[in-house]
Amino acid sequence: MPRMRWINVLLLGTIVLLAPGYLLRAANTITVKTLADMNLLSAPDPMADVLAVIPSGTLLTALGRDPLAYWVQVNYKGQTGWLFESFLARSAAFDPLPVVGGSPSNPQLEPEIGPVRAAASIDMNVRAGPGLEYAIIGHLPQGQAIVLDGKSGAWYRFRFNNQREGWLWAALVLTNGDQANLPDVQP
Asked: In the chain, how many domains are there?
């Protein structure tokens, strides 16, 4: 019986033994690791349907991206869906991935200051206004991607359940973008 030669590879801090044939197949893949429990969404949109919740630390193969590479398409337990890129560790840049979601984009038409994308760092209460004195109107699970549209003091505003405005305490929100560009708003 022929003896296989094994190769040691360092992958996201873990030594993995790979057979030479696998190494050739894996050379063109981009691996991602979830940094928090994340919602696998049906589309590259924070308001899309949740297909599954992927546990923190899960390794997945990236299948594609949206035109601006904010979202990555993966397959988790037979379901293909989307993850917000800010909450993933990755083995390489997403640029080589095929664009499989969203509409074609012309970078010259993109606004100079884009939306501020964010997610809750923990399960959070969503409030009706920017302060603890406002009523709790719902909950935002850890890792849920949202788009911020304003700020007031230490609070961020966003569109909750794609309908009414909701407020989150800024100290517990992970952002991807320049929150200094968010407009100051009043409840």
From this structure: 2
Domain that holds residue 23: 1-104
Give the CA diameter of the chain.
Answer: 74
The tokens describing 31, both together, are 């691996």
pLDDT at 113 over 80: no
pLDDT digits (tens, 9 = 90+) for 115-142: 688 888 788 999 999 999 999 999 988 8
Q: Are residues 44 and 83 in the same domain?
A: yes
Q: What is the pTM of this model?
A: 0.47
Asked if 29 and 90 touch (Cβ cutoff 8 Å), the reply is: no
Burial annotation 165-187 (CB, 10 A radius, 16+ → b, else e): bbbbbbeebbbbbeeeebeeeee
- Bridge partners for 173 per DSSP: 120
Domain harbouring 54, CATH code: 2.30.30.40
Cβ proximity of 88 and 33 under 8 Å: yes
8 and 58 co-located in one domain? yes
The rounded distance, in Å, linking the Cα atoms of 83 and 40 is 6
CA 150: distance to chain centroid?
20
Rounded to 5 degrees, what angle do the CA atoms 163, 64, 90 make? 95
Per residue in 29-50, pLDDT (tens digit) is 889 999 888 889 898 877 778 8
Whole-number pLDDT of residue 9: 40
